[in-house]
Write a structure and sequence with these properties.
The chain is α/β, with parallel strands linked by helices and 246 residues long. It has a single domain, classed as Rossmann fold. Helices cover 37% and strands 28% of the residues. The strands form 2 sheets. A 6-stranded mixed sheet has the order 5-6-7-3-8-9, sandwiched between helices. Helix 3 crosses helix 4. The longest helix has 16 residues. The N and C termini lie far apart (42 Å).
């Protein structure tokens, strides 16, 4: 039977070292050698396993600090896991947070060019993509000639989202960004996401907005303390998410 899985995550573990309380200087660390460890490892992800089928919108939910950001960064190839494997069959267009990957000292136009090159859009298609980003974002020429450090949060969201959605990437990662921007632009983004989904784009969607999850997603996982506590359809996922706070 032909598999349609485009993302496979198997037994993923990740942690990082934090400084023990009470050791604030190099001298204190030397005094405590042999008696206590200056650093301890904090486990962020513990045995995460799931798969995402091509064309699905897959939700990742959980409280703040449960490991969602770390998981997405591993899938995107930004950081490596301590143990386990991630297999991704396609090009990823990540939109991990508002303004991430944008250079504040550059203009909007220069950021579009730079971002397009970084996500693999060929030079021959650059001018067409710039026009598409400008059209979708509804930012004027004067806006796009301005350094983006002078942008409002709404303008930043328009530019970042327009760049991420300009090309029909095989995998789109969206992290807590749909809440930014006015209602008209949000609806425009929803419609574009659904259009990409209908064309076969796979979407990893992270949000605390349950209405967005129910509106867009097919399936998903719920994380708690770095572990999956529920995996299934989006409707049940939202119910389990609500139970975390009851």
């Amino acid at each position: 039977m032909l598999t349609t899985e485009i993302i496979q995550v198997n037994d993923l573990h990740f942690g990082f070292y934090t400084q023990n309380n009470g050791i604030n200087t190099f001298k204190e660390m030397l005094h405590n050698i042999g008696s206590r460890r200056p650093f301890q490892k904090k486990k962020v992800l513990k045995g995460i396993s799931f798969s995402v089928e091509k064309g699905n919108c897959f939700a990742i939910m959980g409280r703040n600090g449960c490991g969602k950001s770390t998981l997405l960064r591993i899938i995107s190839g930004i950081i490596e896991a301590d143990h386990g494997s991630v297999e991704v069959k396609g090009r990823i267009s990540p939109l991990l947070a508002l303004g991430v990957g944008l250079e504040p000292e550059l203009s909007g136009f220069d950021n579009i060019r730079l971002s397009c090159l970084l996500i693999g859009i060929p030079t021959s298609a650059l001018n067409k993509t710039i026009l598409a980003v400008k059209d979708f974002s509804e930012l004027s020429d004067s806006d796009l000639k301005m350094q983006i450090k002078r942008y409002s949060s709404g303008m930043m969201a328009r530019l970042a989202f327009s760049i991420a959605l300009a090309e029909e990437a095989e995998i789109l990662i969206i992290y807590e960004i749909l809440a930014v921007g006015d209602e008209g632009f949000q609806n425009k983004c929803y419609n574009r996401i659904l259009e990409l989904k209908n064309k076969g784009t796979t979407i990893l969607f992270v949000s605390h907005a349950v209405s967005d999850i129910e509106r867009i997603c097919d399936k998903g996982i719920l994380l708690e303390h770095g572990e999956i506590i529920y995996q299934g359809n989006a409707g049940e996922l939202v119910n389990h998410y609500h139970q975390l706070f009851n």
